[in-house]
Amino acid sequence: MSDQKEFSEIEQMRGLIEQLNSYIQTYHGGEVQFVSYIDGVVKVRLGGSCIGCPLSPVTVKGWVEGTVRQFFPEIKHVEAVE
Prior knowledge:
By secondary structure, this protein is an alpha+beta fold. The protein contains 2 helices and 3 strands, in the order αββαβ. The chain has a domain at 30-82: 2-Layer Sandwich (GMP Synthetase, Chain A, domain 3).
């Protein structure tokens, strides 16, 4: 018997985004939170210093989507929601 817990795809995705959030909070003062994953689209909410930052689209597409896609290549894209 194995005591290891199996995590759903959404739980794994949420955990990955939480790890990104920790880094973004520590080094940039911003936040990224998992909102949902439906039909191949990952939705996240930005906060902290990401609000109003002109580089927020780069954070979402380049950093968050790029990282998530490495582990979940089947996603269509990541988008920020209010």
